[in-house]
């Protein structure tokens, strides 16, 4: 730190992090230095005040308060914020929609139904609106196994305490699982917006209107918005509708925050997505990824003066049900696992904006998807 006497009124002599934080985070030593500055400044403006410690303390407090508010973003009175649940049967494009609404990939997507297993929270702040999206596993009728039951539970619980629901359907398709979602929403107290996704697949747009009319007789939707999540069509309109239906409220999360999920969770989801994309139909979805270790090393300067970039070291285990699946994931001479690793690392580097060293292992853990206790130990218990 610069000698405070050399330039008493220069605020950059203050402890560095004071510019970003409030005074409660200063050490007492730093506070002493700060007070010393303040005395110097006061002496410059008023010679008599040097003997008035109370006034000096008040000046310090005023300075801290004004600095604190100067650093806090000003939120307009008409700011709106709230939770938005994205619900629908499997494969209608809920995760694709959330990623495109966020403009950032958070939720994994694949052609395979039931890709989304957990409740994912994505935060989007724009135009004085903060929408906190909850992407849910698709709801479906076949609750055959423990994992399906848990996914349905997660989707239903996402409907509690939200301000708005986006009910996503696949173009003109209407199947019993859509009916199941509709039944859950009919008595919902919050507004429900029907999002007709995959509108790019419609050959004849005239068929849309009778479909919308039919669905409107089933329940009262606040709005019906046809979109193509994949192509990003009509999402501006959807953003507008979402904003209109959220309550006036200060932001619920930081204005720059994009998710409440820890980085280790997001990286395990990235690995899972790459496996599903690589293997397509070859492997059932009975597969999970466990992050064994996640160590972040900050940027450093080596002994020779060279800079060492920040790096995160990740060890992950892919758990499969059977020996045969292990061989499939590993591939010929490890080629498939290597490809999964390369693609996952690239996505992780984009997400975390730093170098990643990724080590992948494959292990057989029979019967995990049908064992509620094992699922809980893998983190499915809190969904
Ligand atoms: N043509 C077209 N395909 C889409 C659109 N949106 C999503 N898809 C595709 O539909 C498939 C399923 O998308 P997801 O976003 O994984 O669907 P989901 O509803 O989250 O699926 P679950 O995880 O099973 O609940 C993927 O192949 C997407 O590329 C769209 O607007 N148009």
**Could you name the CATH homologous superfamily of the largest domain?**
P-loop containing nucleotide triphosphate hydrolases
Tell me the CATH topology of the largest domain: Rossmann fold
Number of domain units:
3
Q: From the 3D coordinates, which CATH architecture of the largest domain would you assign? A: 3-Layer(aba) Sandwich
**Hey, roughly how much beta strand do the residues contain?**
15-25%
Describe the structure.
It contains 11 helices and 11 strands. It is of the alpha/beta class and 383 residues long. The chain has 3 domains: 11-71, no CATH class; 80-245, Rossmann fold; 263-380, GMP Synthetase, Chain A, domain 3 (2-Layer Sandwich), CATH 3.30.300. The strands form 3 sheets. A 6-stranded mixed sheet has the order 2-3-1-4-5-6, sandwiched between helices. Strands 7-10-11 form a 3-stranded mixed sheet. Residues 1-51 have low confidence and may be disordered.
List keywords for this structure.
membrane, Rossmann fold, alpha/beta, 6-stranded mixed β-sheet, GMP Synthetase, Chain A, domain 3, GTPase activity, small ribosomal subunit rRNA binding, binds guanosine-5'-triphosphate, 3-stranded mixed β-sheet, 383 residues, 3 domains
Topology:
Elements: H1 28-45, H2 53-71, E1 80-87, H3 94-102, E2 120-126, E3 129-135, H4 146-158, E4 164-170, H5 176-186, E5 192-197, H6 208-218, E6 223-226, H7 235-245, H8 263-279, E7 287-297, E8 300-301, E9 307-308, E10 311-320, H9 323-330, H10 335-352, E11 355-364, H11 372-380
Parallel strand pairs: 1-3, 1-4, 4-5, 5-6, 10-11
Antiparallel strand pairs: 2-3, 7-10, 8-9
Helix pairs in contact: 1-2, 8-10
Bound molecules: guanosine-5'-triphosphate.
């Amino acid at each position: 730190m610069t000698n405070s006497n050399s330039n008493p009124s220069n605020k950059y002599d203050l402890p560095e992090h004071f510019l970003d934080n409030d005074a409660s985070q200063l050490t007492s030593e730093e506070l002493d230095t700060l007070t010393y500055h303040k005395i110097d400044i006061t002496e410059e403006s008023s010679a008599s005040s040097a003997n008035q410690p109370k006034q000096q303390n008040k000046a310090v407090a005023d300075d801290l308060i004004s600095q604190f508010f100067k650093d806090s973003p000003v939120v307009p009175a008409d700011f709106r914020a709230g939770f938005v649940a994205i619900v629908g049967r499997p494969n209608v494009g809920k995760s694709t929609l959330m990623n495109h609404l966020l403009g950032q990939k958070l939720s994994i997507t694949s052609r395979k139904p039931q890709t989304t297993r957990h409740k994912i929270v994505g935060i989007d702040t724009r135009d004085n609106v903060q929408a906190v999206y909850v992407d849910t596993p698709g709801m479906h009728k076949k609750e055959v196994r423990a994992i399906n039951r848990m996914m349905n539970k997660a989707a239903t619980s996402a409907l509690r305490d939200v301000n708005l629901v986006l009910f996503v359907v696949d173009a003109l398709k209407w199947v019993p699982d859509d009916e199941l979602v509709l039944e859950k929403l009919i008595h919902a107290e919050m507004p429900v917006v029907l999002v007709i996704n995959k509108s790019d697949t419609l050959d004849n747009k005239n068929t849309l209107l009778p479909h919308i009319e039919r669905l409107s007789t089933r329940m009262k939707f606040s709005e019906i918005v046809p979109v193509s999540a994949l192509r990003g069509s009509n999402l501006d309109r959807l953003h507008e509708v979402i904003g209109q239906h959220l309550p006036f409220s200060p932001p619920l999360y930081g204005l720059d925050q994009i998710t409440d999920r820890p980085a280790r969770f997001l990286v395990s989801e990235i690995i899972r997505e790459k496996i599903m994309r690589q293997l397509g139909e070859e492997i059932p979805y009975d597969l999970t990824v466990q992050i064994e270790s996640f160590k972040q090393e900050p940027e450093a300067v080596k002994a020779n003066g060279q800079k060492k970039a920040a790096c995160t070291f990740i060890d992950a285990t892919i758990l499969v049900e059977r020996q045969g699946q292990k061989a499939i994931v590993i591939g010929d001479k490890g080629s498939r696992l290597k490809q999964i690793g390369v693609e996952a690392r690239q996505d992780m580097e984009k997400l975390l904006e730093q170098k990643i060293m990724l080590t992948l292992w494959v292990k057989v853990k029979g019967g995990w998807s049908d064992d509620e206790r094992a699922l809980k130990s893998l983190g499915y218990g809190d969904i």
